[in-house]
Amino acid sequence: NNYGQNGGVPDADVDAPEAWDVAHSASNVIVAVVDTGVRLTHVDLAGNLWTNPLDGTHGFNAITGTHDPTDDNGHGTHVAGVIGAIGNNGQGICGTAWQVQILPCKFLQANGTGNISDAITCIEFARTNGARIVNLSWVVTEYSAALSNAISVLQQEEIIVTAAAGNALANIDASP
């Protein structure tokens, strides 16, 4: 809720408080966070984690090939909080959706690097496990036909894809 604090432009925001007056729960929606994983014990996230009905796990780690998507970097946890930190609980922050199923899919290592093939594996895991939204808050500097195809499959299945536009102040229209 940008009211001009810290030099911001008043009302240059997503109008979250106004939207929460309409709805703040999306508890039936699975949102995959394809990133560095998520801290599974985080007070604002633990209650909103997706649970695999087959084995009780909470996501996927393409680096290790296991179902332990524990975040060792912090970025994925931050992103998951913006999307779905539990709201109105007197703790920390609240996400855009106060109740939602966060599906952590880890492909980035502690230093923030990763392989496109692992990202694609995570995207496929999310797709086959019911994600309706897939968040990709990371940057790829080279074109990958395989990644483009994986995203196209999501779009064909009417799965919403959200992505970072970059934090480098680059003109992505001039240099996509």
What would you note in describing this structure?
This protein has 176 residues and is of the alpha/beta class. 23% of the residues lie in helices and 16% in strands. It has 4 helices and 5 strands. It has helices spanning 16-20, 75-84, 116-128, 145-156; strands at 25-35, 60-61, 99-106, 133-136, 160-163. A 5-stranded parallel sheet has the order 2-3-1-4-5, with helices on both faces. Helix 4 links the parallel strand 4 and strand 5. The protein is globular, with a radius of gyration of 16 Å. The two termini are 30 Å apart. The mean pLDDT is 94.
The total count of helices amounts to 4
The total count of strands amounts to 5
Can you give the mean pLDDT?
94
Radius of gyration, in Å, reads 16 Å
The amount of helix comes to 10-25%
Biggest sheet statistics: 5 strands, parallel
* Spatial arrangement of strands, main beta sheet: 2-3-1-4-5
The helix/strand order is HEEHEHEHE
| Oligomeric nature of the chains | single chain
Low-confidence stretches: none
Q: Give the amount of beta strand, in percent.
A: 15-25%
Structural class: alpha/beta
Distance between the termini: 30 Å
Per the principal axes of the C-alpha atoms, what is the gross shape? globular
Which features would summarize this protein structure in a list?
single chain; globular; about 180 residues; alpha/beta; about 15% strand
